[in-house]
């Protein structure tokens, strides 16, 4: 989406070796003179005058290579001069000073350089170190959905897989192509990322360890290749602590992306940026804060909602935005908790996405507002909604407690979001998918289309609105266990739901070609003289037929039957054999893989 503010894009170059370039903060780093380096503007994080820097923060410098850093001095008002090392970012356009020791909570840190620091003064700037509290406890048992008959699937060939059952009620032939990606969060037996087809048939499921959940399962592009990504971890009171996962098309994990600066990756966002090398993630950082502006205690616990851009190759932070530096507590729609020992989640970040000019768009649920943020400085460029909106709203365009705000249709200045509309006070009678047009000349937001479910659904939390390549909208109803697809005029094309009251944070539809490295699974049963082979291959999108081989020994197996793949597991009645194996065949009859031989049980 275009704006009047300056654009920024980093040119990705070949990844460079992560060499440690220097040891002492007061030594000359790179030996470049002030005159040679002062002209190029440099963005720094923590930003100048930051109030909530982590004691474990790195010092980010973006806009020049590390060879041009020159002399950097880092001094804490209590901890004194800090030594450390310089590590370059993989794109060669910056790097970070990694202190050898943490800073002291509450102190002011002064950084002196010979660089042209954005927001600094003569190359110097300072920031304040936060006084953090203990992280949100994790490991508590995840809640389980109320059980209903048939609410989970069972398979003879894969008894370890017990995913939630999906029932499809509307399935038009005019939907966008692709499989559906989701992750039910309440079992009821196990949780994990899953892929289904338009008939609700399972394609792939990865059950997670007990008390862990997955959110935001989707296909993204990493280093020019399609990958499967999700957040994985534990959560408590809507806040997650975990990691972000990147799997290749073989379902092998390539990267685990972690938050930086001593924080944990939160469940609400994991977006690989358009350069295919960095990731936008969220974190919740509890700190001691003065809440008197909202009639709270002078020393209460507040969640700082954090956005970080992570250089995936190095794990370094290259951008950070802290809500407490830019959005006051008074912008929240709700008061602090009565118990001062509970964190005040005044902002509740739930999405961040890259705009087409390189800046980012951030959604704050508990301020009912969307913010466009400058990627170089963290400054707010405009605010949509909430108590201090830059825009007026046309009929039907206002929203509340929104989730999954995305930039769409670059030339038309469009946003999509899931408008929960539910909370204190209740704004709408039902939630909806919402597409808005933003007019930057009149600073007016107008409704393009809304997608409503029938019967109406009201979600207190979660939800997503993903625009397809054909401009359909794929809607996940969050707290309500439904997901639907609508065309660009709001007509329902697809509708499905889980059989229990199981929330889904987001759901998507994408083309996907899964080629698991595992072999097909096989179980053979003998009941009342009838032998049945049950075949499956978790994650394969290429297998179209099963060929069954049987014989008196593993060395004498011959074809005895074939069957079309109609579901995740195919049941094939066969003549009685001592040993059986199955072969997975493609649509052209190509042999893809063969199971291990099994004997009837």
Would you mind describing this structure in some detail?
It is a single chain. The chain has 601 residues and is mainly β. 1% of the residues lie in helices and 41% in strands. It contains two helices and 44 strands. The chain has a five-stranded mixed beta sheet with strand order 7-8-3-2-10, with no helix packed on it. It has a five-stranded antiparallel beta sheet with strand order 12-36-35-34-33, with no helix packed on it. A hairpin with a 4-residue loop joins strand 31 and strand 32. The longest helix is centred in the first third of the chain and has 4 residues, at 34-37. The termini are far apart.
Which structural class is indicated by helix and strand composition? mainly beta
Radius of gyration over all CA atoms, rounded: 27 Å
Question: What proportion strand?
Answer: 35-45%
CATH architecture of one domain: Sandwich
The CATH first-level class of one domain comes to: Mainly Beta
Q: Give average pLDDT, whole number.
A: 92
* Residue share in helix: under 10%
Shape: globular
Give the tally of β-strands: 44
Amino-to-carboxy terminus distance = 60 Å
Q: Biggest sheet, strands in spatial order?
A: 7-8-3-2-10
Please give the count of helices: 2
Main sheet record = 5 strands, mixed
């Amino acid at each position: 989406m275009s704006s009047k503010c300056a654009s920024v894009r980093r040119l990705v170059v070949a990844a460079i070796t992560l060499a440690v370039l220097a040891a002492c903060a007061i030594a000359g780093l790179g030996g470049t003179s002030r005159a040679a380096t002062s002209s190029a503007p440099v963005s720094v994080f923590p930003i100048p005058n930051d109030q909530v820097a982590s004691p474990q923060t790195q010092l980010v410098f973006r806009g020049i290579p590390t060879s041009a850093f020159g002399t950097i001095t880092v001094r804490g008002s209590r901890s004194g001069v800090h030594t450390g090392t310089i590590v370059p970012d993989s794109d060669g356009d910056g790097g970070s000073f990694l202190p050898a020791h943490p800073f002291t909570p509450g102190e002011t840190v002064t950084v002196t350089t010979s660089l042209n620091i954005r927001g600094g003064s003569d190359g110097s700037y300072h920031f304040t170190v936060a006084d953090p509290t203990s992280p949100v406890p994790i490991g508590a048992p995840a809640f389980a959905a109320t059980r209903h008959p048939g609410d989970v699937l069972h398979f003879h060939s894969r008894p370890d897989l017990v995913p939630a059952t999906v029932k499809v009620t509307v399935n038009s032939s005019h939907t966008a192509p692709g499989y559906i990606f989701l992750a039910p969060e309440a079992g009821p037996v196990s949780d994990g990322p899953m892929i289904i087809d338009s008939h609700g048939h399972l394609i792939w499921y990865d059950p997670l360890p007990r008390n862990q959940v997955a959110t935001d399962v989707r296909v993204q592009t990493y280093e020019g290749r399609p990958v499967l990504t999700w957040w994985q971890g534990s959560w408590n009171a809507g806040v997650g602590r975990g990691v972000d996962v990147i799997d290749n098309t073989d379902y092998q994990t390539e990267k685990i992306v972690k938050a930086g600066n001593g924080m944990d990756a939160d469940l609400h966002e994991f977006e690989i940026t358009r350069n295919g090398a960095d990731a936008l993630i969220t974190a919740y950082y509890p700190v001691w804060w003065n809440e008197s502006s909202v009639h709270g205690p002078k020393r209460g616990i507040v969640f700082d909602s954090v956005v970080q851009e992570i250089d995936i190759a190095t794990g370094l932070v290259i951008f950070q935005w802290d809500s407490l530096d830019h959005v006051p507590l008074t912008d929240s729609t709700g008061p602090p908790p009565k118990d001062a020992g509970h964190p005040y989640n005044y902002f509740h970040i739930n999405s961040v996405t890259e705009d087409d000019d390189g800046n980012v768009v951030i959604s704050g649920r508990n301020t009912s507002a969307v913010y466009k943020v400058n990627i170089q400085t963290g400054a707010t460029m405009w605010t949509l909604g909430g108590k201090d909106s830059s825009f007026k709203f046309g009929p039907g365009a206002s929203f509340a407690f929104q989730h999954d705000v995305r930039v769409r249709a670059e030339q038309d200045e469009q946003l999509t979001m899931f408008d929960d509309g539910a909370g204190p006070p209740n704004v709408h009678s039902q939630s909806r998918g919402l597409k808005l047009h933003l007019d930057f000349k009149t600073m007016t937001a107008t409704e393009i289309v809304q997608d409503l479910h029938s019967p109406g659904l009201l979600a207190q939390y979660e939800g997503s609105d993903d625009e397809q390549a054909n401009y359909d909208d794929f809607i996940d109803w969050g707290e309500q266990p439904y997901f639907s697809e609508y065309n660009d005029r709001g007509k329902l094309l697809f509708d499905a739901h889980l059989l229990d009251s199981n929330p889904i944070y987001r759901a998507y539809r994408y083309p996907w070609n899964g080629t698991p490295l595992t072999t097909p699974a096989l179980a053979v049963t003998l009941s009342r003289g009838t032998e049945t082979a049950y075949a499956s291959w978790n994650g394969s999108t290429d297998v179209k037929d099963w060929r069954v081989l049987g014989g008196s020994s593993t060395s004498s197996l011959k074809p005895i039957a074939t069957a079309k793949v109609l579901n995740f597991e195919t049941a094939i009645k066969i003549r009685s054999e001592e040993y059986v194996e199955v072969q997975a065949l493609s649509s052209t009859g190509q042999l893809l893989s063969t199971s291990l031989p099994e004997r009837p049980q």
